[in-house]
Design goal:
This protein has helices spanning 3-16, 43-46, 66-82, 108-118, 130-143, 174-180; strands spanning 31-36, 55-59, 91-97, 152-158, 165-173. By secondary structure, the chain is an alpha/beta fold. The protein binds zinc ion. Zinc ion binds at residues 36, 38, 61, 97, 100-102.
Amino acid sequence: MTSTKTLLERNARFAASFDDAELPIIPKLRSVILACTDARVDPAHIFGLELGDSVVMRNNGARLTPSMLDEVITLSYLVDKLEGGSHSPFEFVLVQHTKCGAERFADPEFRRMLLEQTGVDVSVSAIEDHHESLREDVARLRDDPRVPGHITVAALLYDVDTGTVEEVVAPVAVDELRATRQPVM
Ligand SMILES: [Zn+2]
């Protein structure tokens, strides 16, 4: 049996009792979650998300890379257009996790081999210390002038051994971060 065949069978069971045709495009929790691609950290499971609850974006390491920043900015613009330019707040939640494969990107030799053999540079995704890189990503969001200030940002660390989440950066408005110019705590 192929993986796709398994997925199609599971979808047939899902569609048999499907009852969510009228969900609004704006997520109910007004949240955008950035999580790692790791199969063990699916936000739908660890946060008990239902369909329509949250936007979920994923990449290797859940790092706020330039392409992810573009996604956030595009989503902000789209939401604001859909809501008639009301600048209604929504929350951007960064979720890294322990025992992440992106910790290997911190090894210069691993990065060098990957770049040499595939042409892919993962230096912006390297994770030496999860607390540090979460704060760095909050700062990347704060420091990009294209990011609207009415967005709130928070950073969490999920523990794959216990299923628990640590709040590393409590929710704070980007405007507030910019006004105080304090280091991200
Ligand atoms: Zn990971």
